[in-house]
Amino acid sequence: DVKVTQSSRYLVKRTGEKVFLECVQDMDHENMFWYRQDPGLGLRLIYFSYDVKMKEKGDIPEGYSVSREKKERFSLILESASTNQTSMYLCASSPVSDRPNKETQYFGPGTRLLVL
Amino acid sequence: AQKITQTQPGMFVQEKEAVTLDCTYDTSDPSYGLFWYKQPSSGEMIFLIYQGSYDQQNATEGRYSLNFQKARKSANLVISASQLGDSAMYFCAMREDNAGNMLTFGGGTRLMVKP
Questions:
Q1: CA–CA separation, B3 and B30 (whole Å)
Q2: Which of these, B13, B16, B34, lies nearest to B25 by C-alpha position?
């Protein structure tokens, strides 16, 4: 079974703090993704990576950065946390496939971040 | 414009009855895939079912089936014989071939199963 783990289930931080959210997958997937989930808005893509040291902006990258130094690990960084970044953050991974539009993404359990 | 629209923020269904969760989508890409995910209160996203744009038949997975109407651009999820454990958020998502590996999600529907 594919396993995607996230470093924390719940996190409370103060405005202005630097926040690291870590995601690790154990299936040697090339693609990794960070989403944020807000009520009524579904999941919105922040950043994704299709290879080590490669990253692409998603729909809402402002205020975030990412790091992928190893294939299995994809980190989301909030350089200076703000209250509007209070949200649920979900990490996902997927393999490269010859039928990419058929391949599902595998999700971690999520991190609920509260910024005070 | 929204690419994926789920018009039902919340729904109730009686245990053992069937329920349909609506999803409409918007794309000009002829090749795409549609996915449904379940998210229980614990937070993890569970893949339920997939439908490809070129698939001739509607997808089925156990109690889940997808009512795919390509001309109407709808991909409704049907859950038969609802169980209390089906209470969760449900998300419809689309991947377009020309968008690579990215999924676009709808806003979700919260399903509540009544005993």
A1: 14
A2: B34
Scanning A30-69 for CB atoms below 8 A from B yields 31, 33, 35, 40-45, 48, 50, 58
Cβ atoms of A92 and A105 within 8 Å: the answer is yes
CB A27 within 8 Å of CB A106: yes
* pLDDT values of chain B reduced to their tens digit, one per residue, 115 residues: 679 999 999 999 999 999 999 999 999 999 899 999 999 998 889 999 999 999 989 999 999 999 999 999 999 999 999 999 999 999 999 998 877 778 999 999 999 999 9
What CA–CA distance (Å, rounded) separates B65 from B63? 7
Query: Considering CB atoms only, which of B35, B101, B105 is closest to A31?
Result: B101
Report CA-CA distances (Å) from A81 to A17, A45, A74, A84, A86.
Answer: 5, 18, 19, 8, 9
Residues 6+ apart with CB under 8 A from B63: B79, B80, B81
Question: Going by C-beta distance under 8 Å and a sequence separation of 6 or more, which residues neighbour residue B79?
Answer: B13, B18, B19, B20, B21, B63, B64, B86, B111
- Nearest-CA neighbor of B84 among B17, B3, B9? B17
Closest CA to B32 of B91, B94, B76: B94
Please give the Cα distance from A116 to A13 (Å, whole number): 6
